[in-house]
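ok, trying the design again with the full structure, not the truncated one.
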């Protein structure tokens, strides 16, 4: 091989090597140029334009990393943040979701980011099926009670109550919560299966939940029995709730319930409880007066009716009773 030919071969090799280097630099240079353009457009409040430039920069940085077998550096996350800032300002939610999904790739287990994606798909893009599908994909990496609860919620919003119950139950398996049980029971009630709802609450009580959750569950059971006109069992569950922590509204409800059940003794116990806590005094006096009157103790009735003659709710009735009793005594 002549020296001239050798020189040509060497020159070609050098040019080839140089072209490869240029190509690598070009990919990075394109990214830098696009990023700078994005900064300029953002400064001019052209948020969609800025977002598009940052997206181009992001793609070229990713390409540069792959071409050179390099790990992702801060420029990748910065371009994602810039896309989010730009597309968020522009309210370009499709592109915003794209940026969030790229961010998710950097940390696949990031629940806060995943939750944001699902919320935007649902609320901003009105695409509940896409939100559910994304959450299922996220959940497939590692089960997440919050993700499963959100899937249940979205199925509920989409009218698929059977699937909502299924996913709420999955969530409950991982994280037993009174609120989740309430959602399950609500779905069961809406599909007409009140007995299943009652059983659901009873199963939850069997797990020996914290006191505040027990109170909430007894209250929910009481509401269910109230809806089915089972006043006795409604009262039983409200009493259990009150035994754990005093609640003036529960006691007031029990007073009225016992009165309706003609259980004067229990009704008067609730009157005493309300008065001792200085709650719903006129309400308590009215029922104590009424019970006394019905039992023939008109003097005691008169005393309590006279206490509430100016009450907005019971005043007129009380005045009529006072007038009637005084005419009889």
């Amino acid at each position: 091989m002549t020296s001239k030919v050798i020189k040509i071969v060497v020159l070609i090799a050098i040019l080839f090597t140089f072209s490869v280097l240029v190509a690598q630099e070009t990919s990075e240079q394109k990214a830098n140029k696009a990023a700078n353009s994005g900064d300029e457009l953002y400064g001019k409040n052209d948020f969609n334009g800025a977002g598009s430039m940052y997206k181009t920069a992001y793609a070229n940085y990713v390409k540069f990393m792959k071409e050179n077998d390099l790990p992702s550096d801060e420029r990748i996350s910065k371009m994602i943040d810039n896309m989010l800032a730009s597309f968020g300002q522009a309210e370009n939610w499709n592109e915003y979701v794209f940026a969030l999904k790229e961010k998710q790739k950097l940390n696949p287990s990031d629940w806060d980011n995943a939750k944001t994606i699902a919320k935007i798909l649902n609320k901003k893009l009105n695409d509940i099926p896409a939100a559910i599908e994304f959450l299922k994909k996220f959940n497939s990496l590692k089960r997440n009670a919050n993700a499963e609860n959100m899937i249940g919620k979205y199925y509920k919003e989409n009218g698929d109550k059977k699937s909502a119950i299924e996913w709420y139950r999955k969530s409950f398996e991982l994280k037993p919560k009174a609120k989740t049980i309430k959602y399950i029971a609500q779905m069961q009630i809406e599909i007409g299966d009140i007995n299943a709802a009652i059983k659901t609450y009873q199963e939850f009580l069997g797990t020996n939940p914290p006191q505040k959750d027990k109170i909430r569950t007894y209250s929910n059971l009481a509401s269910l029995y109230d809806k089915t006109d089972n006043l006795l069992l409604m009262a039983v569950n409200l009493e259990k709730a009150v035994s754990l922590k005093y609640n003036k509204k529960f006691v007031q409800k029990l007073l009225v319930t016992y009165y309706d059940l003609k259980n004067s003794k229990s009704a008067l116990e609730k009157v005493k409880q309300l008065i001792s806590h200085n709650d719903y005094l006129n309400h308590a006096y009215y029922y104590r007066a009424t019970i006394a009157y019905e039992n023939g103790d008109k003097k005691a009735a008169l005393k309590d009716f006279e206490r509430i003659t100016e009450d907005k709710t019971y005043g007129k009735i009380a005045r009529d009773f006072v007038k009637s009793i005084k005419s009889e005594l």
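Keeping the full-length input from now on. The chain has a mean pLDDT of 92.
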